[in-house]
Protein backbone atom coordinates (compact mmCIF):
# COMPACT_ATOMS: atom_id res chain seq x y z
CA UNK A 1 0.00 0.00 0.00
CA UNK A 2 1.18 3.56 -0.65
CA UNK A 3 1.77 5.86 2.28
CA UNK A 4 -1.23 7.92 3.45
CA UNK A 5 -1.61 11.65 2.82
CA UNK A 6 0.77 13.81 4.86
CA UNK A 7 -0.29 14.16 8.47
CA UNK A 8 -0.58 17.63 9.96
CA UNK A 9 -0.19 17.38 13.77
CA UNK A 10 -2.67 19.44 15.80
CA UNK A 11 -1.39 22.08 18.21
CA UNK A 12 -2.29 19.80 21.14
CA UNK A 13 -2.53 16.03 20.76
CA UNK A 14 -5.64 14.37 22.18
CA UNK A 15 -6.56 10.71 22.47
CA UNK A 16 -9.73 10.35 20.40
CA UNK A 17 -9.56 6.76 19.20
CA UNK A 18 -7.60 3.53 19.44
CA UNK A 19 -4.41 3.56 17.41
CA UNK A 20 -5.19 0.34 15.58
CA UNK A 21 -2.95 -2.66 15.16
CA UNK A 22 -2.36 -5.73 17.28
CA UNK A 23 -2.12 -3.99 20.66
CA UNK A 24 -4.73 -1.27 20.15
CA UNK A 25 -6.98 -2.53 22.94
CA UNK A 26 -4.33 -2.16 25.63
CA UNK A 27 -2.50 0.99 24.49
CA UNK A 28 -3.44 4.20 26.27
CA UNK A 29 -1.77 7.52 27.11
CA UNK A 30 -2.19 7.31 30.89
CA UNK A 31 -0.61 5.20 33.61
CA UNK A 32 -2.10 3.47 36.64
CA UNK A 33 -4.30 0.50 37.33
CA UNK A 34 -7.48 -0.22 35.39
CA UNK A 35 -8.80 -2.85 37.79
CA UNK A 36 -8.18 -4.36 41.22
CA UNK A 37 -6.24 -7.61 41.16
CA UNK A 38 -3.74 -8.81 43.70
CA UNK A 39 -0.72 -10.78 42.54
CA UNK A 40 -0.31 -14.41 43.60
CA UNK A 41 2.64 -15.31 45.83
CA UNK A 42 4.33 -18.71 45.75
CA UNK A 43 6.70 -20.43 48.13
CA UNK A 44 10.05 -19.42 46.67
CA UNK A 45 12.24 -16.42 47.54
CA UNK A 46 11.74 -14.84 44.12
CA UNK A 47 8.36 -14.05 42.60
CA UNK A 48 8.47 -13.25 38.89
CA UNK A 49 5.49 -11.80 37.03
CA UNK A 50 6.08 -11.98 33.31
CA UNK A 51 5.32 -13.31 29.85
CA UNK A 52 7.67 -15.03 27.40
CA UNK A 53 8.45 -12.01 25.24
CA UNK A 54 12.12 -11.17 24.62
CA UNK A 55 12.21 -8.96 27.72
CA UNK A 56 10.66 -11.70 29.82
CA UNK A 57 13.01 -14.36 28.44
CA UNK A 58 16.04 -12.38 29.63
CA UNK A 59 15.05 -12.92 33.24
CA UNK A 60 13.87 -16.53 33.05
CA UNK A 61 17.14 -17.43 31.30
CA UNK A 62 19.01 -15.71 34.13
CA UNK A 63 17.13 -17.69 36.78
CA UNK A 64 17.68 -20.98 34.99
CA UNK A 65 21.39 -20.19 34.52
CA UNK A 66 21.74 -19.35 38.21
CA UNK A 67 20.08 -22.62 39.19
CA UNK A 68 22.24 -24.58 36.74
CA UNK A 69 25.32 -22.99 38.31
CA UNK A 70 24.27 -24.20 41.77
CA UNK A 71 22.88 -20.98 43.23
CA UNK A 72 19.87 -20.93 45.57
CA UNK A 73 17.74 -18.97 43.13
CA UNK A 74 14.45 -20.88 43.14
CA UNK A 75 11.61 -18.84 41.77
CA UNK A 76 7.93 -18.83 40.97
CA UNK A 77 7.11 -17.49 37.50
CA UNK A 78 3.53 -16.26 37.18
CA UNK A 79 2.01 -15.52 33.80
CA UNK A 80 1.00 -11.92 33.09
CA UNK A 81 -1.06 -11.98 29.88
CA UNK A 82 -0.28 -8.58 28.43
CA UNK A 83 -2.77 -8.99 25.60
CA UNK A 84 -5.50 -9.27 28.23
CA UNK A 85 -4.26 -6.26 30.18
CA UNK A 86 -3.03 -8.15 33.28
CA UNK A 87 -0.21 -5.61 33.59
CA UNK A 88 -2.77 -2.98 34.53
CA UNK A 89 -4.00 -4.86 37.60
CA UNK A 90 -3.48 -2.99 40.87
CA UNK A 91 -1.06 -5.56 42.27
CA UNK A 92 1.14 -5.49 39.20
CA UNK A 93 1.14 -1.69 39.08
CA UNK A 94 2.30 -1.66 42.71
CA UNK A 95 5.34 -3.69 41.64
CA UNK A 96 5.92 -1.85 38.36
CA UNK A 97 4.21 1.54 37.98
CA UNK A 98 5.22 1.45 34.31
CA UNK A 99 2.96 -1.59 33.67
CA UNK A 100 5.52 -3.52 31.63
CA UNK A 101 6.76 -7.08 32.07
CA UNK A 102 8.87 -8.47 33.61
CA UNK A 103 8.52 -7.46 37.24
CA UNK A 104 10.11 -9.19 40.22
CA UNK A 105 9.54 -9.23 43.95
CA UNK A 106 12.61 -10.38 45.87
CA UNK A 107 11.35 -11.88 49.13
CA UNK A 108 14.67 -13.35 50.17
CA UNK A 109 15.35 -10.66 52.78
CA UNK A 110 13.54 -9.22 55.76
CA UNK A 111 11.39 -6.98 53.55
CA UNK A 112 10.13 -7.57 50.00
CA UNK A 113 12.00 -5.60 47.34
CA UNK A 114 10.36 -4.74 44.05
CA UNK A 115 12.56 -4.77 40.95
CA UNK A 116 11.31 -3.65 37.55
CA UNK A 117 12.86 -3.15 34.12
CA UNK A 118 14.58 -6.24 32.76
CA UNK A 119 18.07 -4.75 32.88
CA UNK A 120 17.61 -3.78 36.52
CA UNK A 121 16.42 -7.31 37.35
CA UNK A 122 19.46 -8.85 35.64
CA UNK A 123 21.81 -6.57 37.57
CA UNK A 124 19.96 -7.18 40.85
CA UNK A 125 20.26 -10.94 40.52
CA UNK A 126 23.84 -10.84 39.23
CA UNK A 127 24.98 -8.74 42.17
CA UNK A 128 22.98 -10.75 44.68
CA UNK A 129 24.57 -14.03 43.62
CA UNK A 130 27.91 -12.73 42.39
CA UNK A 131 27.34 -14.37 39.02
CA UNK A 132 27.44 -13.43 35.32
CA UNK A 133 28.69 -9.90 36.08
CA UNK A 134 32.30 -9.15 37.07
CA UNK A 135 32.54 -7.45 40.45
CA UNK A 136 34.76 -4.60 39.29
CA UNK A 137 37.18 -3.30 36.70
CA UNK A 138 37.10 -3.07 32.90
CA UNK A 139 35.30 -6.40 32.49
CA UNK A 140 32.36 -5.15 34.58
CA UNK A 141 32.24 -1.90 32.62
CA UNK A 142 32.27 -3.75 29.30
CA UNK A 143 29.43 -5.99 30.46
CA UNK A 144 27.36 -2.97 31.45
CA UNK A 145 28.24 -1.21 28.18
CA UNK A 146 26.53 -3.98 26.25
CA UNK A 147 23.67 -4.42 28.72
CA UNK A 148 22.73 -0.77 28.34
CA UNK A 149 23.34 -0.93 24.58
CA UNK A 150 20.56 -3.49 24.45
CA UNK A 151 18.22 -1.47 26.64
CA UNK A 152 18.66 1.55 24.40
CA UNK A 153 18.72 -0.25 21.05
CA UNK A 154 15.97 -2.87 21.23
CA UNK A 155 13.06 -0.37 21.22
CA UNK A 156 14.05 0.44 17.63
CA UNK A 157 13.78 -3.26 16.83
CA UNK A 158 10.57 -3.96 18.74
CA UNK A 159 8.49 -0.81 19.05
CA UNK A 160 9.93 0.55 15.82
CA UNK A 161 10.60 -2.08 13.17
CA UNK A 162 8.51 -4.88 14.70
CA UNK A 163 5.49 -2.66 15.15
CA UNK A 164 5.40 -1.22 11.65
CA UNK A 165 6.48 -4.44 9.89
CA UNK A 166 4.29 -6.93 11.77
CA UNK A 167 1.70 -5.27 14.01
CA UNK A 168 0.53 -1.97 12.49
CA UNK A 169 -2.91 -2.04 10.81
CA UNK A 170 -1.31 -1.25 7.43
CA UNK A 171 2.22 -1.42 6.04
CA UNK A 172 3.76 1.99 5.32
CA UNK A 173 7.01 2.33 3.45
CA UNK A 174 8.62 5.20 5.32
CA UNK A 175 8.56 3.80 8.89
CA UNK A 176 9.44 0.28 7.73
CA UNK A 177 12.43 1.54 5.76
CA UNK A 178 13.50 3.88 8.55
CA UNK A 179 13.52 1.19 11.23
CA UNK A 180 14.81 -1.60 8.96
CA UNK A 181 17.85 0.59 8.27
CA UNK A 182 18.45 1.06 12.00
CA UNK A 183 17.99 -2.62 12.85
CA UNK A 184 20.45 -3.63 10.16
CA UNK A 185 22.92 -1.08 11.51
CA UNK A 186 22.51 -2.64 14.96
CA UNK A 187 23.06 -6.13 13.55
CA UNK A 188 26.22 -4.85 11.91
CA UNK A 189 27.41 -3.44 15.25
CA UNK A 190 26.94 -6.88 16.80
CA UNK A 191 28.43 -8.74 13.87
CA UNK A 192 31.61 -6.65 13.85
CA UNK A 193 32.02 -7.01 17.61
CA UNK A 194 31.40 -10.76 17.63
CA UNK A 195 33.95 -11.27 14.89
CA UNK A 196 36.59 -10.87 17.62
CA UNK A 197 34.72 -11.99 20.74
CA UNK A 198 33.13 -15.28 21.76
CA UNK A 199 30.72 -13.52 24.13
CA UNK A 200 29.44 -9.97 24.21
CA UNK A 201 31.68 -8.82 27.06
CA UNK A 202 34.73 -10.77 25.91
CA UNK A 203 35.78 -14.12 27.28
CA UNK A 204 32.89 -14.93 29.63
CA UNK A 205 29.18 -15.45 29.15
CA UNK A 206 27.34 -12.72 31.06
CA UNK A 207 24.11 -10.84 31.60
CA UNK A 208 24.99 -8.86 28.46
CA UNK A 209 24.51 -12.04 26.40
CA UNK A 210 21.31 -12.88 28.27
CA UNK A 211 19.91 -9.42 27.55
CA UNK A 212 20.83 -9.23 23.86
CA UNK A 213 20.12 -12.81 22.82
CA UNK A 214 16.30 -12.90 23.17
CA UNK A 215 16.01 -9.89 20.86
CA UNK A 216 18.80 -10.19 18.32
CA UNK A 217 19.50 -13.90 18.66
CA UNK A 218 15.80 -14.51 18.22
CA UNK A 219 15.81 -12.24 15.18
CA UNK A 220 18.58 -14.13 13.37
CA UNK A 221 17.01 -17.48 14.34
CA UNK A 222 13.81 -16.43 12.60
CA UNK A 223 11.63 -16.07 15.70
CA UNK A 224 10.93 -12.34 15.47
CA UNK A 225 8.29 -10.80 13.20
CA UNK A 226 8.79 -13.24 10.29
CA UNK A 227 11.36 -10.78 8.99
CA UNK A 228 14.48 -12.92 8.62
CA UNK A 229 14.56 -12.91 4.83
CA UNK A 230 13.54 -9.26 4.62
CA UNK A 231 16.47 -8.24 6.84
CA UNK A 232 18.86 -10.80 5.32
CA UNK A 233 19.77 -11.98 8.81
CA UNK A 234 21.85 -14.93 7.58
CA UNK A 235 24.45 -12.50 6.27
CA UNK A 236 25.37 -11.58 9.86
CA UNK A 237 27.28 -14.81 10.30
CA UNK A 238 28.99 -13.92 13.58
CA UNK A 239 25.66 -13.06 15.18
CA UNK A 240 24.15 -16.31 13.88
CA UNK A 241 27.01 -18.37 15.35
CA UNK A 242 26.79 -16.55 18.69
CA UNK A 243 23.03 -17.09 18.79
CA UNK A 244 23.52 -20.82 18.21
CA UNK A 245 26.16 -21.03 20.97
CA UNK A 246 23.75 -19.52 23.43
CA UNK A 247 20.77 -21.62 22.37
CA UNK A 248 22.87 -24.75 22.86
CA UNK A 249 22.85 -24.04 26.60
CA UNK A 250 20.20 -26.17 28.39
CA UNK A 251 19.35 -23.35 30.81
CA UNK A 252 18.59 -21.05 27.87
CA UNK A 253 16.22 -23.59 26.34
CA UNK A 254 14.42 -23.88 29.68
CA UNK A 255 14.31 -20.14 30.19
CA UNK A 256 12.75 -19.60 26.79
CA UNK A 257 9.92 -21.98 27.70
CA UNK A 258 8.86 -20.18 30.89
CA UNK A 259 5.74 -17.97 30.62
CA UNK A 260 5.65 -18.74 26.89
CA UNK A 261 2.14 -18.74 25.37
CA UNK A 262 2.80 -19.12 21.63
CA UNK A 263 4.30 -21.71 19.32
CA UNK A 264 4.74 -25.42 19.98
CA UNK A 265 2.69 -26.36 23.09
CA UNK A 266 5.51 -28.71 24.15
CA UNK A 267 7.72 -25.63 24.49
CA UNK A 268 5.22 -23.63 26.52
CA UNK A 269 5.41 -23.62 30.31
CA UNK A 270 2.84 -20.99 31.23
CA UNK A 271 3.87 -20.98 34.90
CA UNK A 272 6.96 -22.35 36.57
CA UNK A 273 6.98 -23.26 40.25
CA UNK A 274 9.35 -26.24 40.34
CA UNK A 275 12.06 -27.71 38.14
CA UNK A 276 9.83 -30.73 37.54
CA UNK A 277 7.31 -28.49 35.74
CA UNK A 278 9.44 -28.69 32.58
CA UNK A 279 8.71 -32.42 32.46
CA UNK A 280 5.19 -32.47 33.85
CA UNK A 281 3.36 -29.21 33.12
CA UNK A 282 4.15 -28.07 29.59
CA UNK A 283 1.05 -27.03 27.69
CA UNK A 284 0.89 -30.13 25.51
CA UNK A 285 0.65 -32.31 28.63
CA UNK A 286 -1.93 -30.08 30.30
CA UNK A 287 -4.03 -30.03 27.13
CA UNK A 288 -3.87 -33.82 26.84
CA UNK A 289 -4.99 -34.21 30.45
CA UNK A 290 -8.16 -32.17 29.95
Structural description of this entry:
The chain is built from eleven helices and four strands. With 290 residues, the protein is of the alpha+beta class. The protein has a four-stranded mixed sheet with strand order 2-1-3-4, with helices on one face. Helix 1 links the parallel strand 1 and strand 2 (75-79). The radius of gyration is 20 Å and the shape is globular. The relative contact order is 0.13.
Layout of strands and helices, then pairs:
Elements: E1 46-50, H1 54-68, E2 75-79, H2 90-95, E3 103-106, E4 113-116, H3 118-129, H4 137-167, H5 173-194, H6 207-220, H7 228-231, H8 237-247, H9 250-257, H10 277-280, H11 283-289
Parallel strand pairs: 1-2
Antiparallel strand pairs: 1-3, 3-4
Total number of beta strands: 4
Query: Count of helical segments?
Result: 11
Q: For the largest sheet, list the strands in their spatial order.
A: 2-1-3-4
- The class by helix and strand makeup works out as alpha+beta
* Outline: globular
Radius of gyration: 20 Å
- Low-pLDDT parts are none
Largest sheet: 4 strands, mixed
Distance between the termini: 45 Å
Mean of the pLDDT scores?
95
Beta fraction: 5-15%
Please trace the helix and strand order, writing H or E for each element. Answer: EHEHEEHHHHHHHHH
- Helical residue percent? 40-55%
Amino acid sequence: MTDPKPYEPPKVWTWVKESGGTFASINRPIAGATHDKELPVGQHPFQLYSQGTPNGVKVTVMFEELLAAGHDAEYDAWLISIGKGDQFGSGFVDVNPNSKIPALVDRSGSEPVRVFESGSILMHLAEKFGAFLPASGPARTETLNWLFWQMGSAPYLGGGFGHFYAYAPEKWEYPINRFAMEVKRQLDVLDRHLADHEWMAGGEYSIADMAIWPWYGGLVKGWQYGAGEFLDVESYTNVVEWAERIYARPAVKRGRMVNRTAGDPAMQLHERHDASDFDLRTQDKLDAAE
